[in-house]
Amino acid sequence: MKVEKTEQEWREELSPEAFYVCRQHGTEAPFSGKYYDFKGDGIYRCTCCKTPLFTSDTKFDSGTGWPSYYEAIKGAIKEVHDTSHGMTRVEVRCANCDAHLGHVFPDGPQPTGLRYCINSVCLDFEEEEN
Predict the structure, then answer these.
(1) Residues 46, 94, 97, 117: which is the catalytic one?
(2) Among 4, 62, 90, 113, whose Cα sits 20 to 30 Å from the Cα of 12?
């Protein structure tokens, strides 16, 4: 079920940085997020609604300073044409709550050739249970 909350509800639930990035389409500084160099095995969930977005199997080091993935979990992401900041890009949002996550670029590794460049503050990591 789609998550819909007021701006005030999001402000009360999220940290100021998470609100800025997820709800106001901001960006965290490169190499500053907790997951850009993180190597755990598990699932990355949306920090706003906990929807599973990416698995650690698809994470790779892009050298950009943000966590990067070559594939999202099927149906978890929606793409939006973005012309902000004088650039043409493809923004990625959580399909469940519309949180801004980052952008996707066509310069990633195989098998998809994609690079989902995601802000760490938009993610919560859940370790894989053995």
Answers:
(1) 117
(2) 90
